[in-house]
Amino acid sequence: MIKKILIANRGEIALRVIRTCKEMGIKTVAVYSTADKESLHVRFADEAVCIGPPPSKLSYLSIPIIIAAAEITNADAIHPGYGFLSENEDFSQTCQDHGIKFIGASPNMINKMGDKATAKDTMKKAGVPVVPGSDGLVHTIEDAKKIAKKIKYPVMIKATAGGGGKGMRLIMNEESFQKGWDDAKNESLAAFGNDDMYLEKFVENPRHIEIQVFGDQYGNVCHLSERDCSIQRRNQKLIEETPSPIVTDKLREKMGEAAIKGAKFINYEGAGTIEFLVDKHGDFYFMEMNTRIQVEHPITEAVTGWDLIKEQIKVASGEKISGKNYFPTTFAMECRINAEDPSKDFRPSPGKITNFHVPGGIGVRVDTHVYAGYTIPPNYDSMIAKVIVTAQSRKEVMVRMKRALEEFVIEGIKTTIPLHIKLMEDKNFVSGTDFTTQYMNSFDYSDL
Length: 448
Prior knowledge:
Layout: E1 4-7, H1 11-24, E2 27-33, H2 40-44, E3 47-52, H3 63-72, E4 77-79, H4 89-97, E5 101-102, H5 107-113, H6 116-126, H7 141-151, E6 155-159, E7 168-171, H8 177-192, E8 197-201, E9 207-215, E10 221-233, E11 236-242, H9 249-265, E12 270-278, E13 284-290, H10 297-304, H11 308-316, E14 331-338, E15 340-341, E16 347-348, E17 351-352, E18 355-357, E19 364-368, E20 375-376, E21 383-391, H12 394-407, E22 409-411, H13 417-424, H14 427-431
Helix pairs in contact: 4-5, 12-13
């Protein structure tokens, strides 16, 4: 059994891992940049190691420094959380080379699924439906235009190393191709150090549905049903819910089977998410696989009773997965609370929190690392909390979420709480069916 885990991350996910480790009797090591020395994950870990200055490349993305922190504290495992190095093949391999268990995907799995173009090709071979597009990477704009003409506009240019909506452009016609191509490549190069691109047919009016999968070292794979992530802005998720209001029992079964087929094809171990686009006809297409725990994992925990971090650690320790396929009987929703001003085009709002009160009551969970007096640094992702609500119906979930959001007090900075409250009253969102992944592009933010 693993005895000590270093968490190679920050913020709420680092604190989330620490909580499970404490319940399992496992010692923890926090790492932090100088900007995060007052964060709660540093306070509640058994040990803490400063790994550098605020810039991520000098701290949370520095493989040698993190490995050194693990070695000097005698950590026998590393949990990468999400983001940063969680899907980095070199980091997974370096942990392996140093005899440290990486609680995540193996280098081979990341190689097959971390690169989006390769992942698409892999899933195609596995017999999972994929969006029509290029066969792998496209190296020249001339080739890209030929493919776009063949699969017909509109198309999506996507960075193979992309994430968080970066390196993606929707192209409606050939006249706008050059600018979209250049913008996507430049953005991807700046964000990921990689400007390799591939093309996909743009699925119009889609819903973004993902399936949570779990595999062990013995070839067993199960799924924990779906999460609907369609409410997003610029390809970044704002709200997630389970079950999806547009997924029927038949579609849920088919998507679950496809996700398991894909995971088994690569002998997947640990927690992973296979993401699909579902069109208005109920046809679904593989989009990407995240070989890590997801930001939105708590809603799956809420409806299944599984502690997904605990399951990750157990699988990494050589245990078999402890469940079968799950089909939800209750409802859960998560709102991501960001330090941003939605009325000012989501302008970041770092700074000191002067007053802070989290909501409570039946069916309400808040994951956060901040508190009154905490100063949010400008160096990292703006998400500062997640509100997770559970109830017996979608309608009850939305009523409870609105109540919880109205109870949530964060003063001193701007947050996205007003936006989420407005969405809980928005007729199209309330309907469960009258919105797509593009819905927030035309949403009215003026009165927030």
